Amino acid sequence: xxxxxxxxxxxxxxxxxxxxxxxxxxxxxxxxxxxxxxxxxxxxxxxxxxxxxxxxxxxxxxxxxxxxxxxxxxxxxxxxxxxxxxxxxxxxxxxxxxxxxxxxxxxxxxxxxxxxxxxxxxxxxxxxxxxxxxxxxxxxxxxxxxxxxxxxxxxxxxxxxxxxxxxxxxxxxxxxxxxxxxxxxxxxxxxxxxxxxxxxxxxxxxxxxxxxxxxxxxxxxxxxxxxxxxxxxxxxxxxxxxxxxxxxxxxxxxxxxxxxxxxxxxxxxxxxxxxxxxxxxxxxxxxx
Length: 288
Description:
This protein is an alpha/beta fold. The chain has helices spanning about 15-30, 45-55, 75-90, 105-110, 115-130, 160-170, 180-200, 220-230, 235-245, 250-260, 275-285, and strands spanning about 1-5, 35, 60-70, 95-100, 155, 175-180, 205-215, 265-270.
């Protein structure tokens, strides 16, 4: 199982200098991937912009949006942004995408929240066409440069039947689990794999999972961030998510085999504290 680390693009107070130092340390430590989380309606750094900058100070580590709320964006602009990042990073981008749950993301971008599922279905297909050099609207030219990769890998987020359908029918490479315990990941991943086989897809879907962490004497800061980020879900849910973060080296070490046994191909440990020293603490716990 690959072990990746989130980049603190959504943590309030994180500076551009912090993000670049985090990227350098993550690559030096040997993490497989730098991942983002994203919400238009939260005061975060935009994830694809962060990846473009991080790509300039790294050479190997991959980038993974986990997840980007695609229907809150224009398909043509997303195709252009993603292809640009893929070129700038030498083909290191994977797009994790989903429909999201924050209605405010759609209010702020002037897009339809209720119809986001149908828009997402169309977007996945049109992104493939755009990256293949095709126009996605009649009477227009192709909107984006050619990606460095033959096509940019797509992982679908969500825990609905629609998410499974998108993985197997819309040529995605796999599924990504957001903040789920290992047993829940195992159950849903099994359904994804079963549908994949039934659809006659070759190979196996890639399975990624996210779990939050905050190491050292950072408990109050870590919990405060998660409660704030998920406040729109209500205090009970926000508290539950805040309680789920891994807050010791032993907890990190115990999580790795649990997610591996759940069938996860790559575990992303996402930060709840923006100090770049968290990269070093996590590397000591997860990679040694």
